[in-house]
Amino acid sequence: MNMVQPQGTAKVRSRGLDVFYGEKQALFGVDLDIRAGEVTALIGPSGCGKSTFLRCINRMNDLVDGARVAGSLTLDGDDIYDRSVDVVQLRAKVGMVFQKPNPFPKSIYDNVAYGPRIHGKAADQSELDEIVMTSLEKAGLLKEVKDRLQESGTGLSGGQQQRLCIARAIAVEPEIVLMDEPCSALDPIATAKVEELIDELRENYTIVIVTHSMQQAARVSQRTAFFHLGKLIEVGDTEQIFTNPQEPLTQGYITGRFG
Amino acid sequence: MTEMAQTDTAVRSMDAVAARLKSRYAAERRFRALGLGAILLSVAFLAILLGSIVQKGWTGFIQTQVAVAVTFDPQVIDPDGSRDPLALDTADYATLVRNGMAARLAPDADRNARRDLTGMVSTMATEQLRRMVVANPDIIGTTATVWVLASDKIDMVVKGQVPRQLGAAGNALNDRQLGWVAQLEQSGQVRTTFNTTFFTAGDSRAPEQAGIWGAVVGSFFSLAITLLVSFPLGVATAVYLEEFAPHNRWTDLIEVNINNLAAVPSVVFGLLGLAVFLNVFHLPRSSPLAGGLVLALICLPTIIIAGRAALKAVPPSIRQAAAGLGASPLQIVAHHVLPLAMPGMLTGTILGMARALGETAPLLMIGMVAFIVDIPKSPVDPSAVLPVQIYLWAGSPERAFVEKTSAAIMVLLLFLVSMNMVAIVLRKKFERRW
Amino acid sequence: MQTLLLAVTLLLLTSLAFRAGRKRAFAMADGAPRNLHSLPGYYGSWVALWSGLPAFAILIAWLMLEPSLVRTLVISDLPAAMQELPTEKIDVLINEVRNAAQGHATANPDLAIAADHYIRLRQIGFAAMTAVSVAMALAGAAFAYRRIEPQLRARPRVEATVNIFLVASSTVAIFTTVGIVLSLLFEAMRFFNMVGFIDFLFGLNWSPQMATRSDQVGSSGAFGMVPLFTGTMLITLISMVVALPLGLFSAIYMSEYAQPRIRAIAKPALEILAGIPTVVFGFFAVITVAPLIHSAGEVFGLAVASESAMAAGIVMGITLIPLISSLSDDVITAVPHSLREGAYGLGATKSETIKQVVLPAALPGIVGGVLLAVSRAIGETMIVVMAAGLSAKLTFNPLEAVTTVTVQIVTLLVGDTEFDSPKTLAAFALGLMLFAITLGLNVVALHIVQKYREKYD
Q1: What pLDDT does C197 receive?
Q2: Quick one: fold of C226-456?
Q3: Of B315, B305, B301, which Cα lies nearest the Cα of B345?
Q4: Domain A10-254: CATH superfamily, name plus number
Q5: What is the pLDDT of residue C457?
Q6: SS3 state of residue A33
Q7: Complete domains list, chain B, with CATH
Q8: Is the pLDDT of residue C187 over 80?
Q9: Among positive and negative, which fits the CA dihedral A247, A249, A254, A255?
Q10: Most buried one in B244, B273, C124, C213, CB count within 10 A?
Q11: Where are the domains of chain C?
Q12: ipTM above 0.85?
């Protein structure tokens, strides 16, 4: 199966990717490589298609009625939209964190254990315990919640909830973690913690993050892709995009002329 | 952790996921099948219900008639030849019918056989001959072939609702009568026609003479009362609560009340009707007036709740616009809000009426179970209503009433379906997106 | 009919009053409505209110009071021997008098005289009612008409009247509840004076037929509601066993899986099922389901009563499927989409998401819905009246015949006009119990559902 590629090779590769919602086309011929072991930020004004692109990678768009995808999108060279691809298996490999923290109305422990349970990742209870603890630890939440693992996940603060959702996602041991504006519902302190966490997670996971905040993109990502009206306008190293954009549209956006 | 080891665990982990997939998808399919099964079973119940009603009831719309060669014997009708109308009116026409039957089937019938012959045709036949003679006394002395209504037992056998074998379930005919039926059918003296009696007559102990018209009229009067009372009250309450009422304990209480009334068993409303409308106000028992009032209380919550939903759906901007032009609160409601909410309110009202039309239990409480032959002329006459008529017939032992019950149910369902259709059309036509 | 004609006449008068009032207002304003305080139509309405309201108030009051007045007068004119009869006997006589008045001949000469008296009284009454109400309509209109002047604040006055009508309408719901509670309580208290409350609540025997003679009352102990209660519970349980899985799975399938084509068939089908009157289901239970269960029982060598709790319970379950399904559908769709996405994002299959995330989150709402369905099942009448039978046996065997609270209420009251025997009053005591139980269930259920809604709003 797949090997962990050296940093810089394409983990996810899209070529001429079109997405339609019913009559409306949301993405126009996107060519984009997501490199392994990096944080890639997708930026652009709202409705530009960045979230759509993100949701193609783990086929969350399948849940939308009338959504249609054309072009090619591959994960480790395998077509994500191939008929033989199993969505469940794909999502075990490609985890996701959502805009609004959405912990299940269950205990903190059960929230994190849910993924490993359904995928049968743990042979016994102690192994499951270990997965839960490690995941919480990696998400930087263990210290705060270790005494109340049986309390409801919905009782945590917003920032804690979002880190719980991250812990829940990485407990499945995905290769890629998709983050759809993970900090938009959080206050600045919680945001800082999550951003710190994203930076740490980079060691083990390939991360794609959609964000509204250019500062955030600049802080956490190594590469940045700029979308506008369903088209990928420019992609490059984050530093280059923010200091020396090649396209006038990109420049206009990052300097705040529109957005 | 070295890179190699990490890869290893990752691969092993993905294999574990793949290994479990088969059983997980099997569980998925099972779950989905359960869901589909539940839907199909529910739809099947409906199909069986409607199917069995139609299968048992469609013959209720046709009736069997027997041709009898009647000799209008002056000796029987008018022995002294006076043609006195009173004598003609009270003459023994039953004998004419019996003689006519006997002449054809069993000329030398003894007393028992003659009784069996009488059981073949409805007592309505006697009435029919009386009317013929009273209308035209000149036919006395002539012989004519008259198609008369068959008795319910013959009717059942001819229409195939009960088996022809002697002693089969529901078959009340004896050997001799079965033979006669076969004889009559062979000579073409039995026919089936559209059952007008069923749509024009009131209740009757004899199934072949029973009809639903009395119950339909009773239902109409009841629903008219219900509509007259509950629609204005319901709309006024909805308007008050939605547009004018302050938010305080009193209005909270009213709201809680309405929600709870909507869930009170209807039989309890019947007890209220009995204790208050009959025993305190002495409204006439078994009357559509009392019934309609009870039904009005039952569907009031439905109308109020639907009315409030319709008022809520009118956007506040309309009210603000009207208020900005200096309209008084009542003018705002009467000129702008109410017309926009009216389709929704009407829809709710029709649905409430449909529910009231099918309501049975509370009407039993106020005495609408009486056996009433006459067609009611006003809302204070004793009367049956359709669902109660169904209940009464369902409890009758005669096999022929099964068919009448089912046929009455078909009529009731037809009314309900048309009312719902009107509601749906109304909703579709006036549906507005803000 | 006559009364209807009178009402139409009064309405006509009212509309004439409206026109007259509007016309006079116009005239006073010299054809320029801006000289008036209110629009001319309001002056018309004001006059119409003065004309219609008092007249109709008198009409309604008259209609309510006349029957008992006529009755008293007719009774006072009967021979003394008849007057001394007990109330219920007099009721019968009065009925006969009414029938005689409608043209059915009576054999009793005294009653024939009374019938003539009755007819005369009714005629006088109607004439007087017509005269008084029409006079009232005219007088009211005239009074208001004369007071019209440009400064008259017609609109606020009309609006105040409408307001009173609105407020009064909204209290009807309260009066209904109060009426229910009071009438049940009042009659039930009379019952508990004859039969002890404790005996009623915990007695194991129910045979009201034995206690028709007043000297037997209380000592017989035949008014124990436990068998009725267990019968009700048994049938409710059976119905929930049918309705809960079918309704819940239907809702899940419809909201999560069904293609539009299936939904287009199944949704209306469930709505039709919900709209069919229960008397139809009762007939279905008796004529189709009960024989089916009976013969199925014979195949397995089980003795099934022809009126079994099973038949009634199953059919009642069918009637509850749409209720459970629509309530569950509501709560399932109310579970936020983000929770589903969370599970899908972890690679959960659809059924795993539903079973492990959606259903647990929707559980309180579903419990609330089930409670409402239970309350409906307990109060449901026609199906059990027709299919469950009358034998008050203390049994949990679903194949036997049982009876329920509602069946007994109907049986005790139908065809029985005596109102003082414990047999009749027992129905009100049962009604009180029924009301209390269903009310309690509804309050709890609505509370749970409310809490659930707040959680996801």
Answers
A1: 86
A2: MetI-like fold (1.10.3720)
A3: B305
A4: P-loop containing nucleotide triphosphate hydrolases (3.40.50.300)
A5: 58
A6: strand
A7: 65-193 (no CATH), 213-430 (1.10.3720.10)
A8: yes
A9: positive
A10: B273
A11: 2-152, 226-456
A12: yes
Q: Which two tokens stand for residue C174?
A: 């309260």
**A135-144, C135-144, C151-160: least confident range:** C151-160
B4 contact A CB<8A: no
Length of chain C: 457
Rg from Cα positions in chain C: 31
Tokens found for residue A241: 């995009």
Beta-bridged to residue B68, according to DSSP, are B146
In C, which residues are within 8 Å of A104 by CB distance? 339, 342-343, 357, 360-361
Cβ-Cβ contacts under 8 Å for A17 (sequence gap 6 or more): A27, A29, A30, A31, A32, A53, A56, A69, A70, A71, A72, A73
Q: Is residue A144 within 8 Å of residue A87, measured between CB atoms?
A: no
User: A100 and C338 in contact by Cβ < 8 A?
Assistant: yes
Report pLDDT digits (tens) over B79-115.
Answer: 777 778 777 888 888 888 888 888 888 877 788 888 8
What angle separates helix C260-275 from helix B3-57, to the nearest 10 degrees? 40
Interface touch A92/C341, C-beta < 8 Å = no
Q: Which residue of B has its CA nearest to C257?
A: B32
pLDDT one-digit tens code per residue, A8-63:
578 999 999 999 998 899 999 999 999 998 999 999 988 888 999 999 998 988 87
In three state form, how does the secondary structure of C299-322 look? HCCCCCCCCCHHHHHHHHHHHHHH
Contacts for C112 with CB less than 8 Å, ≥ 6 apart: C100, C106
Distance, in Å, from the CA atom of B377 to the CA atom of B289, rounded to the nearest integer, reads 12
Of B377, B344, B129, B138, nearest in space to B238 by CA: B344
Dihedral sign of CA atoms A8, A13, A18, A20 in order = negative
If residue B371 lies in a helix (H) or strand (E), which one and from where to where?
none
| C contact test, residue of A57, A60, A61, A96 with most C CBs within 10 A | A96
Amino acid identity, position C63: L
Q: Do C346 and A115 touch (CB under 8 A)?
A: yes
The Cα–Cα gap between B22 and B211 comes to: 63
What do you get for the CA distance between the two ends of chain B, in Å?
60
CA A166 to chain B, closest CA, distance in angstroms equals 19
| Mean pLDDT on C353-367 | 91
The chain C residue lying nearest A103, using CA atoms, is: C339
Spatial CB neighbours of A97, under 8 Å, sequence gap ≥ 6: A162, A165, A166, A169, A177, A178, A179, A180, A182, C345
For chain A, helix (H) and strand (E) counts, in that order, are 10, 10
Closest CA to A166 of C196, C346, B189: C346
Contact between B103 and B69 (Cβ < 8 Å): yes
Closest CA to B216 of B379, B380, B389: B389
Q: β-strands A206-210, B62-71: how paired?
A: unpaired
Question: Whole-prediction pTM value?
Answer: 0.84
Our measurement of the distance from residue B111's CA atom to the centroid of its chain's CA atoms, rounded to an integer in Å, reads: 42
Cα separation, C422 vs B193, whole angstroms: 52
Task: State the Cα angle at C391 between C387 and C393, rounded to 5°.
Answer: 120
A-chain CB neighbours of C352 within 8 Å are: 118
Contact C344 A98 (CB under 8 A): no
CB–CB of B14 and A92 under 8 A?
yes
Specify whether the CB–CB gap between A42 and A54 falls below 8 A. Answer: yes
Q: Which two tokens stand for residue B149?
A: 């209504």
What is the token pair recorded at A179?
A: 């983050």
Coil, strand, or helix at residue C430?
helix
Query: Distance (Å, rounded) from C-alpha B238 to C-alpha B304?
Result: 5
